[in-house]
Every structure is written in C-alpha cells, then in structure tokens.
Design brief:
Diaminopimelate Epimerase, Chain A, domain 1, globular, 39% helix, six-stranded parallel beta sheet
Length: 305
C-alpha cells in the first residue's frame, strides 16, 4: 500500500508542487508514494501545473489508517482532520516547528529557508536523484512564489541558488519574467466571490489556545482592491463568526510597493494593535511586510503568549 505526500489545508503552490516533487523523489529511492492535496489549487498553482503539463494531485481529505509525509507545515490546525489516526513518516517544511507529534521516529527535513521546495531540492541532491525538467520548472515557480521573486525577508541565498539551478534544468532563461507572469495570474481577483478570495491563501493558527485566522492576497497593484475592501471586510467578519476565531486578519500585499494593508476583524482590536505597534481602525498599512510567516505570525504569537 503506497504512502501519501500531502501539504496543508487551503494549499498554495509550495504545498501542491512539494507533494508532487517529494512523491517523485520517494518513488525513485524505492518508497511507493502518491501525491495528494487538501483543497483546490489556486489560480497561480493551476497556472504552474498547466505550464509544465501536470494534473493536480488527488483530492484526499481522510488519512486514518494511512501512512503519509507532511509537506509545508507541521501544525495540527493545518493538517488533515484525522491526522491523529494516521502514521506520519516524515515532515518537510520551512516554517517553525509546530505541534504535530508522532508515536514512532520520523524523517524530518526542516530548514530556515523561503520555501519547502528549496528543502526538497536539497533532498534530491542528498539522494543523488536527477530532477525531471517539468518538475524542476514547477519547483522553481513554487520558490519564486513563496519568496515573492526574492523580495520576501524569508528569502535566503539557498533559495536563490536553487532557483538558478532549477531554471537551468527546466530550460527557462528568464525566470523573473515567469515569476511576474505568475503574479499577474495571482492578481486576477475581479469577479471572484469574496469568500474565495479570503480563503485563497488562508491559514488558522493556535496561539496559546487562541484561534487566529490569517489570509494573504498578493498582487502587483493594490489599487485593484479599492472597490472591494468593504466587501472583504464584511466577509472576514462573517468568517470569524462562523468559525469562532478570536481574530481574522487579511493581508493585501503589494509586491511592487513591498508592503501590505492589513484588514482586521477581532474580539479585541487593541491586542492586534499591540502586536504591530500601530493604531488600526480595522485596517493598517504595514511598510515592508511581505511575509505572513516571518513578519505577521511572530508578533501575534508574542502578544498571545
């Protein structure tokens, strides 16, 4: 029986591409695996899959009694709902260590880099496995996405070097141009239901027993949201009531201006203001903030500690 490789709920490009790339590697070294996903691909992810000729991994929500590798997270809140009834064989991630546990020893590749696919590239090197041209192209795109084409503070020299090598394998001469093409697809938000936008890249976090939801929309021109902000604010308020979070935050990130407008709906707005040392009125501009992982989650965790 094959094991599965799966990323987090509401999967982004790193999660879905990582599942495909890691599953291929495991199969090459004699471990039978299948890639899977916990949600629908975003427009950006579908663009990547289409460009390199891949179907999305199977949609599989239940893993009780199964064995699996976890990609791009190590948090219970982001894992399959029945993860406690599954056997975790390994974790490949680039975030802080979360609260997933295992009854048996497991393989862990967790590195402080900008993308899980950078870690997976290191795994290919370790096992001396050649990366197929189309998988290399997808991995390159995932790294460009997660590092915001190297603008994110999470980006490292390892991410940049991996993109250069993967671009060479994939035969892509101008990878930054392809990155901008991806972000243009990501910026296509008009005529999309508000809930779909809010949930496009959304994660729930357990911060010392407090449930916080944080979404992010990355675009090349924040003006696209000018007429949509009231509807987005209304939907995050509705989402918070539906799911019982203490707070729901939505980052509207302008990758060209290199900053984010933060929309907030909260039980206690003052504590959110404390985290960012700014007065909000339910929204605030955060200069230089591009990374949820490095610039938004840590200050929130500090005030909820």
């Amino acid at each position: 029986m094959p094991a599965y490789v799966v990323g987090h709920k509401v999967p982004d490009s790193d999660s879905i591409v990582g599942a495909i790339a890691l599953s291929y590697l495991k199969n090459q070294i004699g471990e039978e695996t299948l890639p899977a996903r916990l949600g629908e691909p975003s427009p950006e992810t579908q663009f990547i899959l289409d460009k390199f000729g891949f179907e999305a991994p199977m949609l599989k929500m239940n893993y009780a009694g199964e064995s699996l590798y976890i990609v791009d997270h190590s948090d219970i809140a982001l894992a399959p709902d029945d993860i406690a009834q599954a056997t975790i064989l390994g974790i490949v991630d680039h975030h802080k260590l979360g609260d997933l546990t295992s009854d048996t020893p497991l393989e862990c590749w967790i590195r402080p880099v900008g993308c899980s696919n950078t870690v997976i590239k290191m795994m290919y090197d370790f096992h001396n496995v050649e990366i197929p041209k189309n998988i290399a192209g997808m991995m390159m795109c995932a790294i460009l996405s997660d590092t915001v084409i190297f603008k994110s503070p999470t980006c490292t020299t390892a991410d940049i070097r991996c993109v250069e090598i993967l671009a060479e394998i994939a035969g892509i001469e101008d990878f930054k141009a392809l990155g901008m093409e991806m972000f243009k697809v990501k910026s296509a938000v008009l005529n999309t239901p508000m809930r779909d936008l809010v949930m496009r890249d959304f994660k729930n976090f357990n911060m010392n027993g407090t449930k916080i939801g944080i979404g992010q929309l990355e675009v090349i021109d924040l003006a696209i949201f000018d007429q949509m902000k009231p509807d987005l604010e209304a939907d995050i308020a509705k989402l918070r009531k539906e799911e019982g979070q203490h707070s729901v935050l939505l980052l509207l990130t302008d990758i060209m201006k290199e900053g984010s407008e933060l929309l907030v709906n909260s039980d206690d707005l003052a504590i959110i203001e404390q985290a960012f040392a700014k007065t909000t009125d339910a929204k605030v501009w955060l200069e230089g903030v591009l990374s949820r992982k490095k610039q938004v989650v840590p200050p929130l965790e500090k005030v909820f500690a």
